[in-house]
Amino acid sequence: MTHSPAAPRFGVNYTPSRGWFHHWLDFDLDPVRRDLDAIAALGLDHLRVFPLWPLFQPNRTLIRPRALEQLAALVDAAGERGLDVAVDGLQGHLSSFDFLPSWTTTWHRRNLFTDPDVVGAQAAYLEALAGALAERPNFLGLTVGNEVNQFSGDPHPDPDRITPAQAADWLTRLLAACERGAPGRLHLHASYDAAFYQDDHPFTPAHSARLGAVTAVHSWVFNGTAQRYGADSVAGAQHAAYLVELSKAWAGQPHRPVWLQEVGAPAPHVAADRAGEFTRRTVAAVLDCPDLWGVTWWCSHDVDRSLADFPELEYSLGLLTTEQRVKPAGRALAGALAAARDDWHPPRPRTTALVLDLPDAAPKRSTCGPGGAFFEAFMRLAADGARPTVLLAERVADHAGLSARGITEIVTVEDVS
């Protein structure tokens, strides 16, 4: 895939203002249209949408036609407002809640990643989702699921344990199902940052950077970044950009696009009166990353306080209130995207590469996470204005690869310490 000088996409993860994702139970297009009007008014160009897997495929051999029709209606309503739509398949996990069909749990407990009946049903479901939307011009493509890697190991309370090879097989099969349903669309998968930071996690950085049409990263500073360094720190502002550049170390192509698919300003880790500034600094940092496909903020609307049992931070992540009022983060994102579109210049190559000495499977990744030696060396370089990227040690002698990425200086963690 070749490098594109086009300005990055700006979008939002759509959380319905009425009923949260439970709105699929009594789907009503009127409140959805109001939400979409408010999203379009911010100047955004796309949504990421989350069908709830148990509602769309309540039995292993039943994919509800009416649910597919409702999803298509939402996509059409978005298109009427100039919004493209990316759809996630296996939900899976959302905002601390797991949504798994009854045919995978308790009396029917089966491994989500290796049981042949379960994986076959997942493939059929993803192909049906993609097929239902394939003819719609504003359908971007499918993401296999939202952070489904969290089911594969600790700290999940009841994980479906697998090996990295099994994770790769699962991803390859399900991405192929997406492609069968809607050939040529932007089909990908998405892991939360355990894939990059957690030792021995079965979903690896190489999976993220090599499987699917683009690399997806999810940036959340409540992962220890804000607690250790502060949300206003260099590490807080640069965390999303760091994940974008870290993912490039494993990419098979020098200009593979990277999608910042989730990023938000979580309270209290980001103070409410600093949410706008945090948004502005985060977006400015990530726009300085070459090969950025786009930024999709989490999320469109706050969670209604009438809904119980969410972690406190989940209630206030919206760019908009449930009454459609624009919040400081929403104003900051709208301003950033307007400026980027009015005067877009692709960022210069990041010429300084920090060497990461991890094997391809990267079993010991904690050095890359908050508090790790590699993480801190990258942030010291960023604080000094070096605009670093990341290079695997095994690629230091790949002169063609270095040239393709524009790398002219190589430094080690020891050089920065």
Automatic annotation (TrEMBL):
Q: What is this protein called?
A: Cellulase (Glycosyl hydrolase family 5)
Q: What is the lineage of its organism?
A: Bacteria, Bacillati, Actinomycetota, Actinomycetes, Kitasatosporales
